[in-house]
UniProtKB/TrEMBL annotation:
This is ABC-2 type transport system ATP-binding protein. InterPro entries: AAA+_ATPase, ABC_transporter-like_ATP-bd, ABC_Transporter_VariousFunc, P-loop_NTPase. Keywords: ATP-binding, Nucleotide-binding, Transport. The keyword Secreted does not apply. The lineage of its organism: Bacteria, Bacillati, Bacillota, Bacilli, Bacillales.
Length: 287
């Protein structure tokens, strides 16, 4: 299996805040989308900055498209499209002028594709970016990132603040992008419904540590949450629960194999579980 991104044993600490990315490992097979989720301050952006080599890591290896990136690696930078939530283009530019700047930077700049994407996103070519709404700026950032034909797209909260219709359009573009088996996407997002729609894998990060990576289909179709009374909860073997959370009238238990669990523990109701609820149980629950 070809990996578009492979992070092994990444450690990065910030002396000022005491935060640390602790032995983070992550692999994205080519042709797939990895969703990256975690609460505020969990370490998603720090992981992304480490991948982009914009912060200095303490230890670990990061291979992008099979290569470790050095500061001088401009060829590899062409192959990576980046959209950060703080897209800050020079406000006096227009999308038309931005294209001229991008053409100077990226050898692979594809003006036709840029025009097609900006058209699709209904962005006016000659209006100043400073007059754009947040959604328009994000759409422009996505169009610009995709128009130099990257192989790996790294998106940090790229759809946050966008309305559902715009998000749907953008997700469609991302899905088309990974139809090419040499392409891949790492997408951090708090909008887990977007990831439920398009991600192949989901990685959960909490306090700088990866707490779970799984195929999205497994999470949606196999994982479950058992709603237990306290008597039912006591019957569950420790090895059969990933995490649990005691509430006022029931205890929620995250289980890996919903159907198997249902057969083994008859009488306990087991629901399908969303990515949000998995994150909540892993982060707020006990195990
Ligand atoms: N330059 C810095 N110096 C010191 N601490 C930092 C720095 N940048 C981030 N941090 C701290 O590192 C931790 C992780 O931040 P990070 O931005 O990676 O989280 P995140 O998962 O992207 O969060 P969010 O979902 O809120 O964007 C936070 O506690 C943050 O305060």
């Amino acid at each position: 299996m070809n990996l578009s991104l492979e992070i092994t044993g990444l450690t990065k600490s910030y002396a000022d805040s005491g935060f640390m990315l602790d032995n983070v490992s992550l692999a994205i097979p080519s042709g797939t989308i990895m969703g990256f989720v975690g609460e505020n301050g969990a370490g998603k952006t720090t992981t992304i900055k480490s991948i982009l080599n914009t912060v200095q890591i303490d230890s670990g290896t990061i291979r992008l498209l099979g290569k470790e990136m050095t500061d001088r690696d401009t060829a590899l930078r062409e192959d990576i499209g980046v959209v950060l939530d703080s897209a800050n283009f020079s406000a006096i530019l227009t999308p038309g002028k931005l294209a001229k700047v991008m053409r100077g930077i990226y050898r692979q700049w594809d003006q036709e594709l840029y025009v097609r994407l900006t058209d699709k996103f209904a962005l006016p070519m000659n209006r100043k970016i400073k007059e754009f709404s947040r959604g328009m700026t994000m759409k422009l950032a996505i169009a610009a990132a995709m128009s130099h034909h990257p192989k790996l797209l790294i998106l940090d909260e790229a759809t946050s603040g966008l309305d559902p219709i715009t998000r749907e359009e953008i997700l469609e573009v991302f899905l088309e992008f990974v139809e090419d088996e040499h392409h891949a996407i790492l997408m951090s997002s708090h909008i887990t419904s977007d990831l439920e729609k398009i991600a192949d894998y989901i990685t959960f990060i909490h306090q700088g540590k990866i707490i779970l990576t799984a195929m999205k289909d497994e999470l949606i179709y196999d994982y479950g949450v058992a709603r237990c009374t306290s008597d039912q909860f006591r019957r569950i073997a420790e090895g059969d629960r990933l995490a649990y959370r005691v509430k006022e009238h029931q205890t929620d238990v995250l289980v890996k194999d919903r159907r198997g669990f249902g057969q083994q523990y008859s009488g306990i109701m087991v629901d399908q579980v969303s990515i949000d609820e998995i994150l909540l149980l892993l982060v707020k629950g006990e195990n």
